[in-house]
Amino acid sequence: MEGIVAIFSNNLINWLLLVFLLAYLWSKVTPAMFAQRKEAIESALKEAERARQEATEFAKQQEERVANAEIEAAKILDEAKKLAAEMKAEIEAQTENEAKAMKERIHQQIKAEQQLAITEMRSRAATVAVRLAEASLPGAITSSSKDRLHNQFVEQLDNGGIKK
């Protein structure tokens, strides 16, 4: 039994040395490793916070752009409506002016046609009157009336064509 106790006491010392060595190495190596890990985590957290702030700022900028785009779209729509109203008024005025001009041309054409018809009717009436006169005058004019008309004509020529 003494052999077992001797082995056990040697093993116990070996175990204690091994535990002490491991504890010593653990206390020397792990704090630096944990410090590096802590720095990496803190750096990652700072980077994440910075990225979150950038994302928040970007989102605000995008919201402003969307709001500005909606305002700009409303302005463009208003301007388009105003332009359309102006163009409509301009087209209506132009159409009204063209209608007035066309109406005036039609009235002028009607007057010209009326004058032409009146002139033509007068011409035909005069022609008919001359034919009637030619047909009825030879029998109605006597030699005394011919002499009287001839004398009146000569007197008018002598007086310069003025009737008395």
Order of secondary-structure elements: HH
Question: What is the overall pLDDT average?
Answer: 86
- For the termini, the CA-CA separation is 191 Å
Give the DSSP E fraction (strand runs of 2 or more residues): under 5%
Shape: rod-shaped
Count, helices: 2
Instruction: Assign the structural class, choosing from mainly alpha, mainly beta, alpha/beta, alpha+beta, or little secondary structure.
Output: mainly alpha
Poorly predicted ranges: none
Radius of gyration: 64 Å
Structure at a glance:
The chain has helices at 2-140, 143-158.
Topology:
Elements: H1 2-140, H2 143-158
Please explain how this structure is put together.
The chain has 164 residues and is an all-alpha fold. The chain has a domain at 2-99. Helices cover 95% and strands 0% of the residues. It has two helices and no strands. The protein has helices at 2-140, 143-158. The N and C termini lie far apart (191 Å). The model has no long low-confidence stretch (mean pLDDT 86).
What attributes does this structure have?
single chain; 164 residues; mainly alpha; 0% strand; rod-shaped
